[in-house]
Structures are given as structure tokens and as C-alpha cells.
Amino acid sequence: QVQLVESGGGLVQAGGSLRLSCAASGRTFSSLLMAWFRQAPGKEREFVTAVSWSYGSTYYADSVKGRFTISGDSAKNTVYLQMNSLKPEDTAVYYCAAESGHVFTASMKLSNRWGYWGQGTQVTVSS
What is the DSSP letter of 79? Predict the structure, then answer.
């Protein structure tokens, strides 16, 4: 069983930055694929970014590429999402997700491929 706890959301003006954190427990950090998804009101949960620690590879949605960065600290079992140049359309509840494995495939951009979820943290970007 994996427990995920997010923190770091809040209100920021367009063009600003926020860093989200997701603390994982219950499994060895390096044995997990980890990701961030987001869900805006009235919309489906969408893939934002993911990381495979085993391969040292990161993956991003086109909408956030160049603005968002996923990283991690294995000593703290924590994954981060650094969000820069935020836009009002980035407003959503952001969720941390984890799944056993080492290989990220295109199908894992679907939320139903992930078995472990955090409670979510609200990010609001004002114009």
C-alpha cells in the first residue's frame, strides 16, 4: 500500500510560480512510477507529468512543457512539481499519483492506469 500526501497549493497571479510536494510512504520510492494529474471544474482528470526513477526519464503534457518540472528527493521520499509562468488555465486541483513499475507508456497518461492517489491540492491562478 502506498500513501501520498500533497501540499503546496494556493492562489497565485498569472506569471507566478508555485511548487507542489507529494510525500510518499509505504513503498520504496525507486520502485514506483510517479505522476501529477490535474482536474479543473467540469473537466476530466488530465495528465500533467510523470517520472520513472529507474530510467531517469520525465514526461510532460504539451500544455505544460517548458513551464513545469517534476523532480524528486529519494531521501525524503518526496516528488515535487515546480510550476512556473502559471496561466489561469492551469487552475485545477492537482493530484499526485503512483503506480508500481519502471516503464512509462503512453497509456499511462490515462488516470485509470494509476492505483494510488493523494487527496489533491487546489491551485488557483488569477488573471
Answer: E
Gap between the Cα atoms of 9 and 103, Å rounded: 28
Copy the grid coordinates of residue 73. 528527493
Long-range CB pairs of 81-84 (<8 Å, 24+ gap) are 81/19, 81/20, 81/22, 81/36, 81/48, 81/49, 82/17, 82/19, 83/17, 83/18, 83/19, 83/20, 83/123, 84/17
pLDDT at 16 over 90: yes
Contact assessment for residue 72 and residue 4, using Cβ atoms and an 8 Å cutoff: no
- Confidence label for 38 from pLDDT (cuts 50, 70 and 90): very high
How far apart CA 104 and CA 51 sit, in angstroms, is 8
